Amino acid sequence: MVAISNSADSSSGSGIDADGWLAGAEQRPSPNQDARPPETTIDLLVIHNISLPPGEFGGDWIDALFFNRLDPNAHPYFAPIASVRVSAHLLIRRDGRLIQYVACERRAWHAGVSSFQGRERCNDYSIGIELEGTDETPFTEAQYARLVACTHQIQRHYPAITDARIVGHADIAPGRKTDPGPAFDWLRYRRAVGASPSGTEHR
Ligand SMILES: [Zn+2]
Q1: Is 132 a catalytic residue?
Q2: Could you tell me where the Low complexity compositional bias lies (predicted)?
Q3: Which pTM was predicted?
């Protein structure tokens, strides 16, 4: 088999294996994924938030959504979304726990109709990270710590994801999406990412 690798050096110690599984993540492969277009360079990171039902944390509903098992009758919010086929590469729980649903080399279905700098279908070339939360609820210390750590991991493995190519879902789907929302502290996150001693180029 010929594997197309986006990695500058897969043995560089990024903590991400050749298929794009992050060390330290709990692996739960979702069926909602497929192959990226051939020879795609992975060069965008998209930050989201999700909670099901919105504002309730810690349940199994996000898993249920990503595994197409969401009970439309369990909550009024679920009915219109139960049949939607979605996933993300990674989810960071309120306690900082990291769950990976899709290997980074594969295409997760997180962005929907989207465009970055005029280039559409961001799912093709991006990695999606969901933070368990809402637009208005402050994210936890543990989530920022984990997000920064996995951003560094991802940037080491996928150097085309420069700091300027880290965006929110709202940035690539304006008018349709608002996440990660005003409660997400971009300044704090970008400062922490930019302070990386990882060797990633930041200028
Ligand atoms: Zn989103």
Answers
A1: no
A2: 1-20
A3: 0.91
